[in-house]
Amino acid sequence: MRLDGLLKLIADTPAARRLLADLQQHKSSRVTVLDAARPALIAALYHQMGRPILLITARPEHASHLQEQLSAWGGGQVTVFPEPDTLPYQQVTSDDAAEIERLRVLSLLAGRIDRDNMPLVVASAPALMHKVSSVEGFSSAWHRLETGMDIPPRQLLEKWQQIGYRRVDTVSRTGEMSQRGGILDVYPPTG
Known about the structure:
Elements: H1 3-11, H2 14-24, H3 38-49, E1 53-57, H4 60-72, E2 77-81, H5 96-109, E3 119-124, H6 125-128, H7 135-140, H8 153-162, E4 166-167, E5 176-180, E6 183-187
């Protein structure tokens, strides 16, 4: 039996159908599942729902383990929302790589990148303890540039500066921008 058929079979069980109906109606629901069967059930529900899912685990190592299991079950675009290397509300600059990955995952959840693939995000409780901007604030900081658009360079530079880009002579890190005559360089956090 193919994996798609197996996931469909799992989704057709009475408990999975009830859980799926409750989730689609935003109702609270509970199903008792063996630990070994959880990734298969989650993958089946994910395929049936067709929308982003955020799973929360107690510890970071559980998030990584669950991500591996869900990937094996064909969970689609399964990714982990990483924890910054700082404590919540600590006034220290965090690791750029962790922050870039957090921005990428938030962008996936907000539907700002890769709109065709609905993400399945696994996050640990410590990862969620760190403050992030609101969906509205996060989405308002986005804009898409496409070939053929005619936008004055000054307008782009002002927009980028408003959303937190730093102006530098040579762009080499995420969050930086520069202007060399009529050429604009920008290093987005997701690129």
